[in-house]
């Protein structure tokens, strides 16, 4: 019985995963071959443990073990292995996600620009006026940001600008 199953469905059995015998049963039913679930399990074990039909038949003839039980054990082991791999893959994906979130959090913390909470521009008609404005805003928590800018209407070359400006920011 098992030998007939091997001769007919060896290649199909080589591809069977998790004891899904649908295609094999269809082949055997079409040819009118009688079989039991234990016969299918034994044939599955022999086909997956061998490299050719002849080798599988020789294993069958020389084996005194319960091949069906061995096949069931192998299917269970394969299923456990797949579940373990799936779990490990999910855990690795979660670790990768957490690491990515940590990196993004660190990048955000190191990006001082994202921590700016307020922005103002102070101005004065002279450098002394600007200094007073800057000091006053520094007491409120603002910090000078960038250099001093000037406004010189009419473009008087070499002349003293009419206005001085300083950008200031406050951090979170």
Order of helices and strands: HHHHHEHEE
Q: Overall mean pLDDT score?
A: 85
For the CA atoms, what is the radius of gyration? 40 Å
Shape: rod-shaped
Q: Please give the domain count.
A: 2
What does the model show?
This protein has 172 residues and is α+β, with helices and mostly antiparallel strands. It has two domains: 2-70, no CATH class; 112-171. The protein contains six helices and three strands, in the order αααααβαββ. Helix 1 (2-15) packs antiparallel against helix 2, helix 1 packs across helix 3 and helix 1 (2-15) packs across helix 4. The chain is rod-shaped and about 110 Å long. The mean pLDDT is 85.
Layout of secondary structure:
Blueprint: H1 2-15, H2 22-31, H3 37-48, H4 53-62, H5 67-110, E1 116-124, H6 127-139, E2 143-151, E3 163-171
Antiparallel strand pairs: 1-3, 2-3
Helix pairs in contact: 1-2, 1-3, 1-4, 3-5
In short:
This protein has 172 residues and is of the alpha+beta class.
Notable traits:
three-stranded antiparallel sheet, 2 domains, 172 residues, alpha+beta
